[in-house]
Design the sequence.
């Protein structure tokens, strides 16, 4: 009867607005990766670590909605934000507005990143899921969120350290308040 089990692992992501085939493929792949990682307890623990503006663990927000982190991730809708202001910053790959259920991806930039580094693509979707559940940003720094997700959600099937810190440093961009609060 678990609510998560009604979603097959490969369920298709929901898109809002026009989406290019390359971005669609990138999101599908990153979502599948992210979903698989959430099955690991250590990865799911990031929802207990981070809290919303009221100081409540994000996991409590999931419990209130009677959703697992996995089911919640699969309920998020995605849109191409390439032409939005936040994506004019070349360090930004994805962004969302707090407590809305649409995650914007910076089109070609996200697609290329997620293709070349699926693990980081998955981490970025999980990063955005935290925001959708109420996590603010700055603080905590965007880069720190992504690094924590990477550390907690590194798949056992892949060697730890495969992602070099240098490789992900440029990929931190995202945030609920893009282009106005010093995000770089
Ligand atoms: Zn962020």
Sequence:
């Amino acid at each position: 009867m678990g609510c998560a089990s009604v979603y097959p692992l490969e369920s298709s992501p929901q898109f809002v607005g026009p989406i290019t085939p390359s971005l669609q493929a990138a999101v599908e792949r990153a979502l599948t990766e992210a979903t698989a990682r959430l099955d690991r307890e250590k990865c799911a623990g990031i929802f207990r670590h981070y809290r919303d503006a009221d100081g409540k663990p994000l996991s409590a927000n999931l419990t209130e909605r009677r959703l697992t982190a996995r089911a919640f991730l699969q309920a998020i809708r995605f849109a191409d934000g390439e032409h939005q202001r936040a994506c004019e910053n070349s360090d930004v790959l994805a962004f969302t507005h707090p407590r809305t259920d649409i995650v914007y991806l910076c089109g070609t930039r996200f697609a290329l990143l997620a293709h070349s580094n699926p693990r980081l693509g998955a981490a970025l979707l999980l990063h955005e899921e935290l925001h959708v559940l109420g996590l603010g940003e700055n603080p905590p720094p965007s880069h720190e969120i992504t690094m924590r997700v990477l550390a907690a959600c590194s798949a056992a099937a892949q060697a730890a350290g495969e992602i070099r810190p240098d490789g992900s440093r440029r990929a931190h961009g995202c945030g609920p308040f893009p282009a106005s609060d010093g995000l770089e």
Notes: Confidence is low (pLDDT under 50) at residues 1-9, 156-172, 175-184. The chain has one domain: 14-169.
